[in-house]
Every structure is written in C-alpha cells, then in structure tokens.
Queue: 2 jobs
Job 1
Amino acid sequence: MSMAKFLVRRLLQGIVVIWGVVTIMFGLRAVAPGDPANLMLAEGATQELVEQVRREEGLDEPVYVQYLDYVRELVTGDFGYSWQSNREVEAMVIERIPATIELTIAATIVALVIAIPLGVISATRRNEPADYGATMFSLLGISTPNFWLGLMLILVFGVWFGIPYPTFGLSWVSLASISVPFPSVGFYDFPTGRRPVGFGEAVRTLVRYGSVYDLLVWLKHIALPALTLGTYFTALITRLTRSGMVDELGKPYVTASQAKGLPSVLVRYKHVLRNTMIPVITVLGLQMGTLMGGAVITETVFNWPGLGLRLIDALGTRDWPLMQGIVVFIAIAFVTINIAVDAVYNYLDPRVSEQ
Amino acid sequence: MGITDTKRLDRRTLLKITGAAGTTGLAAMSGCLGDPSDDDGTDELTITLSQFPDTVDPLDHITGDFFNVYDHIYEPLFDFEPGEGIFSRVVEDWEAQGDGTTELSLRDDVVFHNGDDLTAEDIAWTINRTVDPEMGVPSPIGTFGLGSIDGASAVDETTVSVEYSAAPGLAEFEFGNYARAMNMEWAIENYDAENEAISGADPEVFNGTGPYEVVDFTSGEEIVLERFDDYWGDEPPFERVTFNADGESSGRVNSLETGETDLTINILPEDVDTVRSADDVEIRQVTSFRNIFCPMKNTVEPFDSLEFRQAMNYAVDNQEIVDTILSGFGEPRGQPVAPGINGFNDEIEPYEQDIGMAEGLVDDSGYGGVEIELTAPQGRYLNDADVAETVADQIDQLENVSCEANIVDFGIVSDANQAGVDPDEFEIPFFMIGWGTITGDTDYGVQGFFTIPDNPNRTFDDEELSDAILESQQIEDPDERRAQLEEVNQLAHEKAPFLFLHTQESIYGVREDIQWEPREDETVYIWGMET
Amino acid sequence: MISDRIRSNLWQTFRKSLLPKLGLVLLASIVFMAVFAPVLATHNPTRTGYYDEQGAEYPPLGYEYTTSVADDGDIADVTVEPTTEHVLGTNNVGQDVYSRFLYGARVSLLVGLLGTALAVVIGVPIGLVAGYYGGRVDDGLMRIADTMLAFPALVLALALIGVFGESPIYVPDPIVAVGLVDGMPDRIPIPGTVTIVAGLVTWVWFARVARGEALSIRSEEYVKAARSFGTSDRAILLKHVLPNSLTPIIVLATIQVAVIILLEASLAYLGFSGTTLSWGYEIERGQDVLRTRPWVAMVPGIGIVLAVISVNLLGDWLRDALDPNIEGEGR
C-alpha cells in the first residue's frame, strides 16, 4: 500500500473518530441535567427570559434538528459562543494552546534529558546500586499521581524552602503586575509592571532588548509544572530505555564489535541507543493522550493558563459550547498525532502498517 | 508562541523598557515606576479577585466580583451605605411622587468615557433593558435586582421617572443598588445580535461614567483601569488599577505575600495565618450580609413536616461549625438575613443543638428512620463542602435519621434552587446555598425563596409566610415596614423553611499602608481607600 | 490453563528478584488494611468534629503548629499540640486522618477491581469478535475504540455524573455486620459513576489485546479444523480463542488496576467523584491547608503511591514471567 493511499485511509478513519467524539458530546449535552437556558443566564432570571432564551437558542426544536444544526455549525467552523463569557469559543481555545504546548514540550525535554542517561546507566550497570536506584525511581515515577507530586513539590520548594516564586497561583494572571523589584538578573533589568510572558515573547525580549529577564521569569514559572508533568514520562522512558538497551546489548553485533575492539562507549551510544530509540519514540507517540490528560491536571494544580485549565473551568461552570470546543480540539490533535506516528512507523517498517 | 502578543507592550511599557535599558540599580529603577508624574510608586494598585469578569456588559452578572470591577467603570447612580440607605451620587436628588413613580434628578456634568454627555434617556434605557426582555438589548441579569421596577422614562434631560409596583421604600432599595448608567447609543451599536450580548474585547468598548476608564483588557487575565480625567467627582486615590483573578485562596494569598497584588478577597480561614505572618500585609474582616443555609422544600417528604424541619435545625451545632471549620470567622444565625439588614430581628436566637429534642421531633413527625441527602457545592462559600459534610454528619448522628453529604458543582445546586416546589420538577429537596442580601433589605433575602405569586422558583410553599412578605411590600411607612419585616423573619425562624447555619465573614488581605475598611455588602470601592 | 511451564516461570522470576517480593508484601498489607479497616481504625472515618479545645485540627504525633482563630473581631494565634487519640492528626472537618487512610484503601482497591472487571467485560468480547471476524466488523469496532481513546476521561466523567448522579454503591461491611466491632459504619459508599467511567475509558486496551490474539489465532490449524467440523463461531471463540488470550489479559488487567486507582484519585481530586471518602478527595481537601496542615494531603498521597506501586510490581512480575506481547499502559 502506497504512502498516499495509507494517509488518505487514516485521514478518513480520523474524520470518523472526530465525528464520533462530536456526536458523543452532543449526546452528553442533550441528556445532562441543567436547563441550558438556566445555565446561560445568571441566578434569578425570570421565567419569561428563560423561555425567550430557549426559543432563541433553538432549544425547543426536536433533538435531531438541534443535532443537524450543531454538526452543520461545526463543519463550517462555527464553535459558537461561551455561555459564561459570551466570547467566541474558537478564540478562547486558540489563545490557550501555546501555554499547553510550552508545558508539554518542557515536560518532554525534562523527561528525555533525565531518562535516557538514567536508562543507559541502568542497563550498562545491571544489578548494581545505580540500576536499583534507577529502577526504584522509575517505579515511583509511574506510581505517583501527578497532582499530588505537584502539591508536594510546592510544599517542599515553596513552603519549606521558602522560595516565593514557584508556588501556588503560578498563573500569569496572578503575576500580571509584579510590584516587587526584580533581583539583579544580569543583562538589563526591567521596570515593574512587567508581566510574565510566554516563551516566544521572552525570546523576542532577549533578541530585541538583550535582556534575559523574561526568559528567567518564564523558566521559574515552568520549572515545577514541567517537572510534575514530566515525571511520569521520565519514569516510563527510563524503563523503556533500560529494557531496550538490555535487549540490544545482548545482540550478536554488539558482542562482535566489542571483539573487534571498537571503544565500548561508542558502541553503546551510537548503535545501541539508536536501535533502542525506535520503540521509545513509538511509545511516546502512543502516550500523547496520557500527556494531554496529565497536562489538564498539572495545569489545574499550578494554575497554568493552558487549555487544560480552561477545560476544568468550563466543566465547573458547565459551559457546554466551550467544553465541546476544547474536546473537539483535543480529539483533532490526538487523531493528527496518531496519524503522524503511524506514518513514521509505516515509513520505518512498512510491514506493520497493514494487518 | 507567546501567550501575550506584542501589542500589549503598549507605548508606555515600551518607554519604560527603553528607559531602563542600560541602567541598573535602585535609582534607575525608581525613575520608571508607575506614572512619570508620580515617582513614589504608590500610585498603582492591584486587586486580585476570585473570579475574572470576562464580559464587557456591566449588567451581565450579579456576582460580587463583577461589581467590584464594573462599579468603577459604570458607577452606581447612588451611593449605598450598608444599613444606612442610599445617598446622592450621579443622582443628586430624588422624590417619590406618591403615584407609583419616583423622579430622579441627575447631575448635569456627568460624561461618558467616550466624551458623550450622560442623559436621562441613557438611564431610563439602562433600567428598561434589565426589566423588559422585549427591548432589543436584553440584560442577562434579568429582573432580579429590580424585581418591583416596572420601567423608567426620561422626563427631561436630567430627570428620570422610575415606575414600580411595590412600596417606594422597596423600590428605592432596588434601584439604589442596581441602577447603572450605560450609554444607550453605544450599547446598541455594540450589541451583537447573534451572540445576544454586548461583546468585544478592546478597552474602547467599555464606556461608563465612572472615575476610572479601561486602558487594557486581556480576556481571562486582567483588566487595567486608569483615572478618567473628565470625571465629575473627586479624583480617586490611585492613578492606575489592575484587576486580575485567581480561583484558589492559597494562590491569592501567595500573590499578596510576594507583593504581586495589594488587595485580595475571599481568603479562607486556613490562609489567614499566612497573611498574618507575612510582612507589610494584614487581614481585615467584616461580618458580611451573606447567610449560609440549607433550604428544605416542603412539598415532599420528609420536609413537609414542620417538626422534621425544626428537628434538622436542632440537630446541628452551628457554634461548633463556626468555631472549627470557619476558625471563628462567622456567626450562627437563626433567620434568613444578617445583622445590619433592614428588618433583621435581633430578638431571634439561633437554634441551639439539642439532640434529644431533635430526635423527639423526628419521632413526632412520623419520619423516624428516614434517609436523606444534603447536596452542597464546593468552593463557592467559605469552606462550603466541609461545612456540609459536618452538617450531614451531625444529622446522621441522630438515632432516627441517616444523612449523607453529596458534594457537587455549584451549577447543580443553583439548578436545585431554581427548580421550584412542584415535586415533579425537582430531584434535590435539601441543599446548601448562600445568599447575600446585598440591597440591605430583608425583602431581597426572603422574597425569591418564599413568595408564591409569580414566583415559580420559590423553595418553600407557605401561604402565611408569603402573605406576610407581600404585605410588607405595600407598607409605605419605613418604621411600620421594618416591624413587618421583623415579623417575617420571626415567622421564617419558626416555620424553619431552611436549616439555618451562619452568617459568614468576608476576609480580605490588604497591604498595611492602604487605609480601607471592608464593607458588609462584599463590594470593594477604590474611592473608599486612602494611602 | 495454568501450565507447569507458567508456574515454574512465575516462581523463577519471583525468586530471582527482590521487587516481586516487595510488591507482594506491600499489596498484602494494603489488602489487609482495607479488609480489616473497621478493626484497625481508631475512629469512625466519617465522624466529624475531633478538634482540640481551641477548635483547631490535631497535628500528627511529633508535630505542632500555630494557626489563627477569630475571636470577637480580633484574631489570635494559637499553638496546637498532637494527641495520642489521633496518631496522624485530624483533617479540615475534624475527621481522624489515620482511620480515613485505612478506609481510603478500601475505596481505591474496590474501584480499581470493579472498574477493571467492567473494562474486561466490555473490552474482551469486542476485541475477540473484531479480531475473529475482521473486515467491516473489525473496522467499525476499532473506530469506536479510537473514539474512546480520543475522548478525555474527565469530560465523560462529568457528563455521566451529571446524568446519573454520583450513584454511590454501598458496600456492606461484613466485619461490622457480624458484630465484631462497634461504632464503625456498617457500609461504605464507593463512587459508582466513577467506576463506570473507569471501565468505559480503559476497555479499549483490553479490546486491542484480545483483538490481536484473536487475529493471530484464527488462522491456526486447530481453529480451521474446528470450523470445518461445523463448530459454531461462538464455541470456537469461547473454547479456543478466549483461553489463549487469557495470559496477556491477566497481565494487562493487573496494570489497569493501578491505572484505575490513579484515575479515581484524579477524578476525586478534581471534585468529580461525588464521594468524599477517598484518598483523592482527601488530597483536594489538604490542598487548601497545605501550608499549615500538610499532613492532610500528605498521608492519603502516600497511600495512593504505595497501592499503585504494589500493583505495578505485581504486574511487572507477571509480565516478566509470562512475557505476553502487549501494548497499552495508558493512565
């Protein structure tokens, strides 16, 4: 099967999946309690106004008409308006995406930087204390709920060590205007009233004004959330790297090359690691859903202004249009990533693609 | 990829940045604090709320957090002093005409932020919009705050006539609190029919007559106000005010501790200690107008029994709940409204826990052995879920009742409160809710729950109580009316339509050098501060 | 089904390493805690109101703290000492933390087991049918599975809790029922809707494993032979395909118990579970008081970590010993 054909097929399947998600969301909204008109209006609206809103929102139409209207709107890219803030759902979703991407990438980097060396050490020093240590660490990592880990990190760093920055309410909201003068951070200081900004903006500050201030503030803010979100992955990748390395190290080409006298370090890292990484990357792709789920909770714990926090807000206020927008977006992201992973897989090993 | 886009680096910020470039040290820094005209850095204020007002329509929500922001932009027509009444502000003078109308005389020097003069027509339109859904631009807060107001019309440029169907005293309480002035032309222009709201996200779309105008608005994050130069009244104390929000009490406290904010609201009792041990900030608290209680809908078993409802009140130890879960930041209460409210009856003592009495009453009611469930929200009121769990456990400790707490999100509780008393229409007869009688009048605290005519959302079905409230609405003499309202509270105490709990205190964390006394109605007015 | 080879593999792996032993000991202690909670507990876990005379929560033994209380408009600082009555202190509503720790184990394990059972019951038949028949059936069922994977568990939980309520399942307590102890609850609620949600979001992994096994077995000679004898598909699935899939399913089920324990904790932490007797909810409670009363969040978290570690160790042991080829470790 050619690559193009494969991609078209997967794309069609992906569309079916997204349609399924949309339909489930509609079904859930239709059966969930709470009159939408009531939810849209503030406490104490009159019956008259409720009726009016019901009419205007088409809530008195038969369910199938509502469903068709809803799907038609989604297809034309109209996600509707948030009940809570009356803003366009699309804009509310898009503005929160960068923060989530920053967090997930930072967490992935944390995971890779710690896990691969740890896995390698563990595999090459099997049954030594370092191996036991790494094994226990990865065991703890996959067994610790990340919201609790986040709280414990806050407790240790924020409360016990008294570092005032990376604690609760780490939102860019609550830090919107820093009225404490910043300590000397090298380069040039910024005046007060400077709000913490995202990574892109921080880099722009560095380029434009030659100041690393924004970048340092960003780093301070993302450190604990990234560590929290990254721990599970660190643990998972450590395990995968270790077992992959152990397998590879037992293969004939390794023993052969060692016999030929190639320096062992070179062997270890160049060939073995490359072969080990293929399954690691595959699993990472498969685990994107987990990463996104983890991001929702991590963002909640640290008040990180990403999509996950917005989802929790939407859930709490039962803002259905917003909830639907976010869920559909997550589904699209999930499907896209899966197709990408499959495509890479297909490319690397054409036999796997078709069963 | 930045969360914030470049345009937010407005001209002033850019000036500050470039001004600071190349220099280090305190001297250089102090030169770029705040406004160039004021170098001491105290002319800025940051207030952290618990909920961000993510709308440009000042009449969109009826929640305290929203008023805290919008009252500075769209100022109230009157000054309201809790427990004292209303005083002139935009409205200089007002007089009941004795024919179901009151005439309001406006100041003639009030202008909107966009430069338009305020006219009587603007005010009439703003009031009509909230009471008449047929107007082109409905107000989402509905008729709630202005329940007895029928409409308003402009008599001349500076005179508005307000029509109402209740006693002038009650109407005065209502428009005294909820009347605002919007710019009619502007609002109609900005009305987005598809979205059914006044919308937009630029600072320019805010247009009131208040002492502050909006200079920066970032949805979901912050709103920045600056003094409005053409304001008719006294210059407010801070040049620049930023409002932001954090849903967690601990997060708000952290912001206060690190100096990122100067004033924050709704601090939980367990965070009080943190604020007290931090430098330069302190706790200020006041008993609020907000009562916490559990309505019991008397159209279903077992709550149709007066004895059973009273038993619930005797089962709970409110003093203990206040002392432990609220760490003392509250007062047990035995009537629907708080002290300081017009009509509060200071002769009513809260129910005191009496297990024997409660068990006896349950037996008398014939509902011995019943199982009930208390539904309660989380994160809405001071330690609400904890209070509910304790209440449920204390009821559960009665020999002949078993009770469990069901903690849900606030929407479900709100639905239960709105669902009325028809047994076919609701599933939750017993739930915990809080009510702030922010108008300062008992009517606002009881009318929605107890009156029967035109009120499908009531939680209690009792002719006697309903009639007593309706009667009070028609009494014109203030003293007589107060006496009748005290009677209403007495009746509510006896009939136990609620499991009465407590009045909660509002706890604020404030920078020490800001002189400001918290208000009972939970609003934060910057013009009430001094530095 | 458990052949000698499997048995010896299990034993060999168990003997060689310390980890399975550790896992088994841990798991046994947690199960013991859960089963004998009424005997081990010092207080009724739902009873509120255990405060010291100043109205403050007790700290754990060996710890003291100061807190602020309001007193007629003033605020005073008070110091709170521990008591031997409450070894791990009390929480925000004055409940005994130690007793709730024990009962929390019950809720976690029960939800983990029931949720996994539900996932097996849904996922295995779907997977077997999809893999055995292939073609359209396979395509359709696998799209449903993909849809479930793309759907956030939180949203599903909230919506279902909205529809069905929290639907607590009351599990009677045999120890209290026979009168061995007094003053403990005679039943405890476990979150029914959350259990269902757990099953609904994890069945996909079982379906995938079962499908893979069915796919590989259906072309085996003995299955072909059975089919040519006219054996019904149903019988083939039950007699031949299912038994052969059991090993990977058992290994996966062990891992999923851990996954579901974490899921339940997360949902309870976010306040979507509706039941307050849960480690996750207890952590949420502790978050509010993290600065002054850190034990409220710390103790239940340790419970979750220990429970999940023990189950994971068991899962690793089974996987190493039985060596099934399975994917899927999502949580």
Job 2
Amino acid sequence: MLIPFWRSSLLSLALLILFLGAWELALRSSAATGGSVVDAEYAALVGAAAAQGGQTPMPMPSEIAARLWQLLRDPFYVRGTNDQGIGVQIAYSLARVGIGFGLAALVAIPLGFAIGMSPLLGAVLNPFIQVLRPVSPLAWMPLALYTIKDSSISSVFVIFICSIWPMLLNTAFGVGSVRREWLNVARTLEAGSLKTAWRVILPAAAPTILTGMRISIGIAWLVIVAAEMLVGGTGIGYWVWNQWNNLSLADIVIAILMIGLVGLLLDRLLGWVAGAVAWQE
Amino acid sequence: MNHAYVSVEGIARRYPGATIFEDLWFGVNRGEFVCLVGHSGCGKTTVLNILAGLEKPSDGEVIVDGQAIEGPSLDRAVIFQGHALMPWMTAEQNVAFALSCRHKDMPRAQLRDAAREALERVGLTAAADKKPSQLSGGMKQRVGIARAFAIAPKMLLMDEPFSALDALTRGALQDEVARLVSEADQTAFMITHDVDEAILLADRILLMTNGPDARLAEVVVNTLPRPRMRATLHKLPGYHALREHILDFLITRSRLMAQGLPADWNPRHAPEVRPGA
Amino acid sequence: MTRPTPFACGCAMPHQSGFACDAPTDGTGAFGAAADEAVLRAVFPAAPTRRAMLATFGSATLMAAIASVFPLGHAREAFAQTPAAPEKRDLKIGFIAITCATPIIMAKPMGFYERQGLNVDVIRTAGWAVIRDRAIAGEYDAAHMLAPMPLAMSLGVGVANPIPWSVAAIENINGQAITLAMKHRDKRNPRDWRGFRFAVPFDFSMHNYLLRDYLAEAGLDPDRDVQIRSVPPPEMVANLRADNIDGFLGPDPFNQRAVFDGVGFIHVLTKEMWDGHPCCAFAVPRSMVQTQPNTFAALLRAIVEATAHANKPENRREVARVVSAENYLNQPETVVQQVLTGTYADGLGQVQRVPNRVGFDPFPWHSMAIWMLTQMRRWGQLTRDVDYKGVAEQVYLALDAGRAMREAGIEVPASPMRSYVINGRTFDPNDPGPYLAAQPIRRN
C-alpha cells in the first residue's frame, strides 16, 4: 500500500514537535527548582543557574530557535579573521570539499578506468588500494601537515584522500563490468578507443561511478567537519569547535542541524545527477 | 569457391584440454545467404565471432575479399543474439552511433535523418525517441537490424538473432530480414538451430557435428525457389525432403558423425547434398 | 675534543653546532660560546658586521673587549639604531583563546601593531599542538605559546627535530588557578586528592609543572597518586561537568567560566604558588631575529607596549571588553572582566577581590626558563643534562625584550636572573642542582 506523502510528512512533523516539546518542558521544569540564595553582587558575576546553586543547563529549543534566527539573519558577515557568519563558514567547508572531491574525481575516475580496462593494472594496484582504503582519513592529517606545511591545503588533501577510494573502486568495477556485447558492438563498428570510452564505457559505467561519487561526497562531508575541528581557521567544523570553546551548546545544536542539512543537499545533488545518467534495460 | 567473398580456411578453436571445432573450411559467395546449423557446444558462435573479427582462431584463417582478416570491420556488420543495444541511448541514437562510426564527419542533423530513415525501413518510426527499455523484444531486435543495415556492410553476420523472441514476432522478423537481404542483395551468414528459419533464408546450409571436436559434416544446398514466404514455404516442392534431411542430421547423424567421420570425408570439401532436388 | 665553531651549522642559525641541531653533548663548554654569541648579537645586530668583527679580532679578544664595557645595557644604547622599516609588514600571529593572550590580541584592535607599521592578523587556533605545528610549518610568523614550549622545541623535546624558537617576551604572569568540581568543595587540602584526575592544557606548560610541584609538596606523586591529562582548555569545563576529571590547573577564562556555569569552584590561584610566575609567551622563530630584525623589533615594541597597557589596572575593564569579543576570546564579557579585574566569584558563594590575580610583564627572565628546564628534567621530559643557563640565554631573549622595554619607558631589571619562592621552596637559578636534588618526588 502506498502511504500518501502528506500523511507521512504530517506524522514526521508531529514527531518533531513532540520531541522538541518534551525537551523544552523537561528543561523548563528542572530550571524552576531554585537552590541556595546568594547575595546580589555574587549573582551578578555568575550565570543564572549558578546563582541558584545549579549548573547552566542544556539550551531549550526556544533558545536555540532564537539563536538560529539571529545567525540566519546575517549569515555572510565577516568581522575579522576569527568572527565570520555561519554562511561564510559553510562556504569555506563546501569549497574545501569541492576542491578535494573534485581533485579526487579527476584522479580516481581516469585511474579507475585504467584499472577496469586492464586486469593486470588492477592486480598490481590492488594491494596498495586495499591497505590504504580502510585508513581513517584523519590519520593522514599529521603527515599532511608535516609535508604540505599548510593547514588549509592539508584539509583539502584529507578530503582528497578520503573521497578517492569509493570513486576509484566503483569506477574500476563499473568499467570492468561493462557488458562484453556492448564492447563488441563498438568493436564491430570500428569505434576508436576514445569514442568507445566516451560513448560506450563511460555511460555504461556512469551509474556505478555516480554511486561511488555519492559515497565519497558523504564521507568527504563527514571528514571536513572533523578536519576543520582539528586544524581550525575557517569552516563549519572550526565553527563548531569555536562554539564549543565558548561552551555555547545552542550553537553546536545549530551546527549539527546545518551540517546535516548541507550533507543532505550534497547527497540529493549527486542523487539527481545519478538519476540523470541512470539507465535501465 | 575460388571466387568466394569469404573464404574460411582450416580454422580451429582449441582450449587446453579441449578442442571445440577443428579444421573448418567453407566459403560464402557474394550475395549468398549461408546458414550454419548445429547443436549447442559445437562452437557456432565462435565461428561467427571469428568471421566478425572479434575472436582469433587457434589455427587457420579467414580471407575476406582476398585479405586475411585482422579484426572487426565496418564491412561485416553483426546482429547479436541479444539485441546489444546501448540502454542509455534512444533507438535513434543507437542507430546514429553506428552511422557516426561509418561516416566520421557526418553532421549531427544528417546522422539523425539517416538514423530515422533506417528505423523507418524496419517500421519503427514511432519508436525512434524511445529507450530500449521502453521497447518490446521484437522492436529491440528490429533496432538492432536497422543498426546493422544502416552502415551498409558488405556482409551481414547474424548470431541466432531471433532465438529470444516469441514465435509470432520471430516469423515477422524472419520475413523482414528476408526482404531486406534480397532488396540489398546482401551477403549474409547466419547461425541458427531453427531448421525452418534456415530453409526460409539460406541458399546453403552448413551442418556441423556435435562438439567437442566438431567438424563441418556436410553442406546442404537449398534448391527451393525464391521468393520464399513463411506462410507458403511448406508447400514448395522439395521442402519436406530438405527438412527431413536436416532434421535427420540433427537428430542422429550429427551425433554419429562426431564419433567417426566417413573414410572419404575431406575437410576441405565437405560433401555437398541437394535433398529433394 | 675540538670546540664547535659558531655559524657552522647547516640549519643556518647562528648557534653552536653542539646545540639544537645535533644531540647536545654535556654542554658546558659549548654553551659558554652560545652566551657569547647572544651578547655579540646584541652589540652588533647586523650579521655582516658581527662576522667581520669576529674575523678581525677573533672571538676571545672581542668578548674581552665587550666585557670591559659590561653591563650590556649601555653598550646596547650606544649602538641603538633608529627604527628602520620592517622587512615584512603583513604578519600572521596565532593565538589560543585564553586571557594569557591578551596583549597579543588587544594589540590588534587597539592599534599597537599598526602604530609600528605592521599589518598583523591574529588567528585563533585550535590547540597548543596545532599552534606548534603551524609555527613549525611557517604558517605563522610569530605565535602565542606556553612559556616552556620554545625551550622544548629548541631542545628537540616533543618534536621530531629541534626547532629553534625563541621567547621574545612573556605575556602574562599569574592568572591561572586550580579549579575543582563542586563535589570536592570540602576537600581543600591537596593531601586528600589521592586518586584525583586532573587536566592541564599541555605537557610542556607551566600549568603542568606548577600542578606537579604543588602536589609533590603535598606529598602526592603526580605520576602515581593522581592522573594528569592534557586537555584543551575549552574542554576542561565540559570534562569537569561530565565528571571526567576532578579538577584542572588551567588558564583563564576557563576557571572563571566553570564558576559562571556552576560547574566548579576556584580552589587556589597560581599566584599563591609562585607569585609572578610566567605562563604564556610571545614566541618567534629564531631566524626572524636574524633575517627580519626590523620586523622583529617592531613586533616586540608593539607587544611590549600592549603588555604594559594591559597591566595598568585602570585599563583592565576596557581590555576585557575588547578581548572578550567573538573575534577573539568569544566569552561572556563578565567572565573575562572578573579575571582581569580580580573581583570575581569564587564558586563557593564569595566575591573575592585580588587585583593582581593576573599581571602582564614582558620581561623573559632567564631564571624562569631555568626553573622550567629543571622541571622538564625533573619529570623526565628531558632525559639528558643540559646547560640550563646556556639554553635559557639562547631561547629567552632578555636582551631584545629589555631594549624594547627601555624604548617604551619601562624599567628593565639589571640582571635576567633572580631567585624565587615556589610552593614554599626557594629556587636559586644560579645553582639549580641542589634545588632539583632536594625534591623528594622526582623522576630524574
């Protein structure tokens, strides 16, 4: 049975409201319990919760929403090196992911092509790929920092190294499993190797390659946040780290939301491209 | 045989520990339609692939137009068993792709028109913009046929092109191919295990013994007059004798001859028979 | 054994070949020359001149001549040059978002760099290891470091190869504290802390050394009776809250932030352990002194002036407002203000008034460096004996800082050495051996 979209959306919304409502209520009720009373001068020097003998609690959804509104009203300001709007930070992260992922695609797709076409090359490179592939991308960071000596390029490198494997393996697999009969058609038509690669192998392998790219961009987006937290400077990961520095949990919740949404958008974008190159027999 | 367009000279396909076929000699004359009939496992498809240049024989060679073949050529178009259409291209694009290989400098618009024309000849004008997945099996194979004819090859190679189709569709396509071949006076080589198909289309029918170590047992000359139509084929004089002869071969002699060939059998000149003539 | 020749090292640094780039030998002889070198450099700031003088007179003669005009203060003034244009104007300086960095930070918005003709970008950095790595990579022209870091880097401790960096000026004195979780409000005697888990910002930090010394004086072995972890300062409060640690000896504003959030209380200010102890430093690559002397001098003037400005009690509120902004410390202004004014909530319901809770004094005393080196040795970070005084003289640029201070009208101590009382024990920098040997708990 097909569930109507509006129905499932409505239920999702209800679930969200229920969750946020419970969150808000739980915090409001715990905040109400007052503790020791201190003098006014002392109270002025500490946070509201600490003045009552408690600890600053998790922010409530209403506080987070207010902060979100404040951030989104002016997402692209730049007030000095260390204070830039959330939109600017996301743009930095996207740029790093874009460059690292783009370079990885430029390397992985031709190399994957070569491996897919040549079982010998595949066998020669396979041990290296198998050993390097499972390495956590962040493990490359110290090495990158040490050799590249530039933290921004290092984080791009980390993105590059983590996005290359799914694309490489998927391209190799996609190219290697192109139907023999299509290749035979191209051969009997005396299509040159370039024409065969471009008009037959690439479109035939495109859905598999796109699957690899989709996996890669997901990993890249996961990794950039961690990498930026590590090296700092700019980017949404650094922003998270920075708000953590300030112990501003509302900002961290917002960052989680933003990271999730941007990740979803990236996936949808490639999903859309995948749909465009998909074929069915 | 000396004037044959294609001359197959002693080809063999051997794998370590197994010989599929051995010492095949035959020719195909210009404008002639030759069918190769045999049971599965006798290496029919390999023979066709060798003719197409897609595979190399373990021994022997194939001379086309006076030259040993080195590889595939646009002069020998193949209609594959599966339709072998590129599923990401529309019917028209599939044909245009073949045309673009034949005519490297043809402008896009002209390719398009030529492709439409080729599809029109197989009655697929309406399906030109459809992807293979949107077409029925018969329509897909028609596109395959249109693609093969579009490049105006000197020879047409067909590998059981209709075996995956239902009987009705197969009949229609056989008539279609018969018409196209005779219109173009096309030299053709076809693999089949459908006896009626061979009788309908072929001028000569090559019979192979069972594999492994298959041989060319004999050459049956089809003397039935043309034009032949499926509907009336069985009424032609000599049809039954021809059919009996081939069926007899397929049922019994192909197996017996695989065990031992007659003493006077010459691989270079397999006996030619004219049943019912 | 032949005496190593100055200027002979492949790293192009004008240091003894026995120092930093090779594994140091026992040191005494080699570091004597290093001290001479430092003096020579102060007298003849231009390298070619210095080399020419050395070539002409030979090292021994030259040093004797200079010794006759000692103290060097007068010699320096005699050779003082009018400020020349900086070789490099656009500079990047990394900092960690703690109040110790106040002079480095405020010099930017308050125009101290600009006044020296410099265009400086101050870049907030994620942690001490990151600042060190970026400094080594040359991404930063200068950096905010913990005072022991350039010593460790120059000795090749905690890094792959010795990296010659120098402390051009100390940033802050005092201004740290031990903060304990609220549940320990009744355990005010360190003898009761057996089994505690503490956080310090970095292994090579005054925080680590002071905490260890404090615990050891209370009879606790810091390696066996408690746990000490390196935790980035911002995470200290969160760890305290999550009950992952029992307390930390950390930089402000995080002590005050723990109070602000009701997570912990301030047990003791480090001022009570060693009044006037250094904490953070303004560090430069040693090559900068040579290759960009004018930039270095301008930078040092800016830092010294900013430090002096930050030290004045009447400026503290304004400074607190400036540095607490999102671009810098990114903290509630009241938290930073409590740290800088010394009127603060202690987390136990009392308002404390300690105006000198934190101070800013740029002078890099050699004696401070010597104490840090003894602690590195004491706790096994430094596994060989080195010439403490020689290293201190080379890494802590007291002469250069002194010159900048004099130019800014700040009184300069006559000698970069003085003794201290640290956690109740007297430390004589001229004779650190007995001090180290007298420690009941040590690893060397």
